[in-house]
């Protein structure tokens, strides 16, 4: 299964250990908020640290990322102990989950990255408030594209909510972002 097959479908539920060792469950659509799930190769590596910190900074600096507006979740195949060290060192303010057996990676259709050179790909999913996967970005080398991708989607989802409150619903994009930048449908 490819991660792209999830687009337009309900996101798989997740129960994994958080960095603090506690069980964390993500049930898509349960809290009525959109979610960004970003899967990454290795806590503490250069690109993964930059990516995680970009999400941390977005939560602190941008209204669209504020708590109560979106749920941000990071997931890697690292141990709980490594996640704890990573979260504390980088002062991350969102759940960082340990998928050491890569079961959630499999459930989301994420395989190796960079033509098999990286053990797991860097893929970010945007899940709407109803729990439906709206789009995904696979950009293993371009760690900086992920928070921008999510921000564009959050803006789009806000506009759709505003339109739904009015008269005409916004169109739903059908293209998938798989390169360094979101597809044209994801940027409009």
TrEMBL record:
Thioredoxin domain residues: 5-159
What's its top-level EC category? oxidoreductase
Note whether Disulfide bond occurs among the keywords. yes
| SUPFAM superfamilies associated with the record | Thioredoxin-like
A GO CC annotation recorded here is: cytoplasm
Protein name as annotated:
thioredoxin-dependent peroxiredoxin
User: What family does the entry list?
Assistant: Belongs to the peroxiredoxin family. BCP/PrxQ subfamily.
PANTHER family xref list: AHPC_TSA FAMILY PROTEIN (PTHR42801:SF4), THIOREDOXIN-DEPENDENT PEROXIDE REDUCTASE (PTHR42801)
Disordered: annotated segments: 160-188
Q: Which Pfam families match?
A: AhpC-TSA (PF00578)
- Superkingdom, according to UniProt? Eukaryota
Instruction: List, alphabetically, the Gene3D superfamilies matched.
Output: Glutaredoxin
- What PROSITE patterns does the database record attribute to this sequence? THIOREDOXIN_2 (PS51352)
**Which UniProt keywords are present, listed alphabetically?**
Antioxidant, Disulfide bond, Oxidoreductase, Peroxidase, Redox-active center
Q: Which residue intervals are annotated with compositional bias (Low complexity) in the record? A: 173-188
Q: Which InterPro entries match?
A: AhpC/TSA, Peroxiredoxin_BCP/PrxQ, Thioredoxin-like_sf, Thioredoxin_domain
What organism does this protein naturally occur in? Galerina marginata (strain CBS 339.88)
**Gene Ontology biological process terms from the UniProt entry:** cell redox homeostasis; cellular response to oxidative stress
This entry's Gene Ontology molecular function terms read: thioredoxin peroxidase activity
Q: EC annotation? A: 1.11.1.24
Catalytic activity reads: a hydroperoxide + [thioredoxin]-dithiol = an alcohol + [thioredoxin]-disulfide + H2O
